[in-house]
Every structure is written in structure tokens, then in C-alpha cells.
Amino acid sequence: MAENDSTNPTDSYTVGMVLYPGMTFLDLVGPQTVLGLYGKTLLLWKSLDPVETETGNTVNPTTTFDECPDLDVLFVPGGYGTNDAMQDKDIVNFLKRSGKTARYITSVCSGSLLLGMAGLLDGYKAATHWACYGALAASGATPVHERVVIDRNRISGGGVTAGIDFGLQLLAELRDERTAKAAQLIIEYDPKPPFSSGTPDKASPEVIASAMEILGDMDQKMISTLKSRVEARS
């Protein structure tokens, strides 16, 4: 996208950010920090009761699924609770319904698997957390190992910290490149990680093994859940 000033600075947009128990807080708050600078973010859940993240902190919804308006952006975070959310009919049905009208259908981390469960990634390229690409392939999406993947109106980010990159890319689509660059400066996003082990191709086998001890078999569990969706359609 070329840098320009074509978008009126007063133009806004509405981002609906789906909550669910066990989501990763940073998957949510990274994109919200970027997108909330220039637009409205709605935190969506079945009720207005607080939703607990995987680390135990809670997020207060602002809007229920039933009261959600048409959205410019439908967004889904990932987390250890993704597989349970994929089996929650209220969440999946909301995604199906909202996905019919949203201008952009988006995710970060394993949130793409929830979109896949709702049939919103069939035939689209997408990214996810590095440990979840088996499930992404089973979802009907075309897996792409990139930090951010844009395929028509589907935009997906990789794992957790990719949410900031995702938010900036999406902001450039919603507004323009100058706005996205200003947002990057406002949040002082200039990463210099202390270690070079942020992806499997950079990490040692020992580090990967340590990570997998925590991540466990989440990929296989989500593959099994997605198979139930395929079987139900056949």
C-alpha cells in the first residue's frame, strides 16, 4: 500500500474482538492497542460477565454477541482455550453470522482455527501459531508461514507478538500507511529481542523441546475437533 493522506482523519471503523475463556491476553491487547488509536473496539462475549484469560487476568466485555452491530473488522485471538471455544456452538455461530457482513475477517495466533471451525477460511491463505499449522491445514485454509498473511479480506497473524505487526498491517488497510507508521511510533514499536529463538527455524532442538512441554498436544486436539466439523458437513 502506498503512503498517502487519502483517508479523512475523522473516518473511523469498528473492530469486534471476540473474547473466550483461556484466550491469550496479548493476542487481544496487542491489536487493540494499535487499532484502538483510530477506531472503536468492541469486546464481544455472550454476556457482560468478565472473561478469564489463560493467565488468570480477566477482560470485561463491552458488547454481547446478540447486541453486536455490523462490523468493519471481525477479530479472533488465540490461546490455550481455543480448542474448547471451537466446540462452543454460540461462539462458532456468532462467527458464522458476523462473518457474512464484516469487511475484514481476521485473527492472531490460533484464533485462525476458530475462524476455520466456522468455515470462514475455506480456500484462503492464513497464518497461525507455529505449533498449530497441522490444525490450520485441517481447517480448510492454505497455511502460510508468515508473520502476517493477507488474502483478499482475510488477514491473519502468527503467534502472540505477531498481533502488533498484524494490527499495523490492518490499520494500513483501514486507513493508510502514514497512519500505520504514526501508530508504530506512538507505541514505540521498535523490537530488538534479546535472543534469536522466536521461531522453530531459529531455536535449538533443546529450546523447541522445552517449548513443546508447555504447548503439549494442542495441535492434535484441534485437528480432532476440526474433523468433527468435516464429518458433520459430509
Structural description of this entry:
The protein is an alpha/beta fold. Helices cover 38% and strands 16% of the residues. The protein has a seven-stranded mixed sheet, with helices on both faces. It is globular.
Proportion of residues in extended strands: 15-25%
**How many β-strands, per DSSP?**
11
Kindly report how far apart the N and C termini lie.
41 Å
- The secondary-structure element order is EHEEEEEHHEHEHEEEHHHH
List segments where confidence is low: pLDDT < 50 over at least 5 consecutive residues. Answer: 1-10
User: Main beta sheet: strand number and arrangement?
Assistant: 7 strands, mixed
Continuous helix count: 9
How would the blueprint of this fold be written?
Elements: E1 14-18, H1 25-35, E2 40-45, E3 51-52, E4 58-59, E5 63-64, E6 73-76, H2 82-86, H3 89-99, E7 104-108, H4 111-117, E8 125-126, H5 133-138, E9 142-143, E10 148-151, E11 154-157, H6 162-174, H7 177-186, H8 205-215, H9 218-233
Parallel strand pairs: 1-2, 1-6, 2-5, 6-7, 7-11, 8-9
Antiparallel strand pairs: 3-4, 10-11
